Amino acid sequence: MSAQDRSQAAVEMPHEHQGRHRADGRPGLFRRPDVLHTVPAYADLGGGALMTETSTAVLQPTWRLNMVAAPAFKNLVEETVASGQSRIVVDLGQVTFIDSSGLGALISGLKATRQAGGDLRIADVPEQVMTVLRLTNLDRVLRVHPTVVDASREW
Amino acid sequence: MSGDYVLEGLAVPESLNLLHDLLERVGHEHPDIDAGDLMMFETAVIEVAGNVVEHGQPPGDVTWAFRLSVLPDRLEAQLSDSGEEYPGGTWGTSMPSDLLQEDGRGLALATAVLDALEYQRSNQVNHWTMRRRRA
């Protein structure tokens, strides 16, 4: 199994936190770090690949990340960092719209993770979000990755 | 201005989702509107409305009326609110120089995606007019 296959397998691996999910399906809420799991990271040490265990918290906001939803999302990031997870990937694939409040929540999360020695990355960014990131120049500070798997590598 | 679409209510965060819903309806009923134009217009509407929600005084008591017209050459909307007078000038219309600043981008973003954003105050009411030319 290649390194890429292993990362993919890890991301699709059933998780163990069913009880903590916000599973009511209501839009605008956030899944808890329900795909929070260990994503293998690989370090090349002189000709051999050494697998190290590193964990990534994947947060998946949905629908409109606006003034209504941003405070809860900001809290979720803070709780995730406080629980010891400072490497966070925000999967934006289910977000239909972001406003400046949502951007503020992402910036807040970026600062919180970095203060804790980690980072916050964004993945699967929809067109409206990408346009807004460019217009605000925030694409310079928020690292955009095509997929969650890409974003979960090489911290 | 007259409006093809009208929404009235309280300037509170939950009302923003009603504006989103209205813009979605506009898209369904006018499939000829370029999706990118509507997306950017929605961005501006939500930012201007969000600014009223955030800064409108007294908080929670400000009412607003939103009117939107789909014209052959442009999308035009006006948001009228009962809040206190906006400071005016260029307040809030340029992006923060500190990229890690968490707020202060709303009106700057609206300005960036519109061809015109105008503010007037008359009879104790703020009027925000937004225009975007259609592709």
SS field, number of helical segments of chain B: 3
User: H/E order of the elements of chain B?
Assistant: EHHEEHEE
What is the β-strand count of chain A? 8
Helical stretch tally of chain A: 5
Rg from alpha-carbon coordinates of chain A = 15 Å
Which two protein chains have the largest interface (Cβ within 8 Å of the partner's Cβ), and how many residues from each?
A-B, 26 and 26 residues
- Mean pLDDT level of chain A: 75
How would you state the average pLDDT of chain B, rounded? 93
The total of beta strands of chain B comes to 5
Task: Domain count of chain A, please report it.
Answer: 1
Strand order of the largest sheet of chain B: 1-2-3-5-4
CATH-assigned fold name of chain B: Heat Shock Protein 90
> What fraction strand of chain A?
25-35%
Overall, the morphology of chain A is: globular
The major beta sheet of chain B can be summarized as:
5 strands, antiparallel
Number of domains of chain B: 1
Instruction: Please state the second-level CATH architecture of chain A.
Output: 2-Layer Sandwich
How do the strands and helices of this protein lay out in sequence?
The complex is a heterodimer of chains A (155) and B (135).
Chain A: H1 3-12, E1 30-31, E2 37-45, E3 48-61, E4 63-65, H2 70-82, E5 87-91, E6 95-98, H3 100-115, E7 119-123, H4 127-135, E8 143-145, H5 148-151
Parallel strand pairs in A: 3-5, 4-6, 5-7, 7-8
Antiparallel strand pairs in A: 1-3, 2-3
Helix pairs in contact in A: 2-3
Chain B: E1 5-10, H1 13-29, H2 35-55, E2 63-70, E3 74-81, H3 106-113, E4 116-122, E5 125-133
Antiparallel strand pairs in B: 1-2, 2-3, 3-5, 4-5
Helix pairs in contact in B: 1-2, 2-3
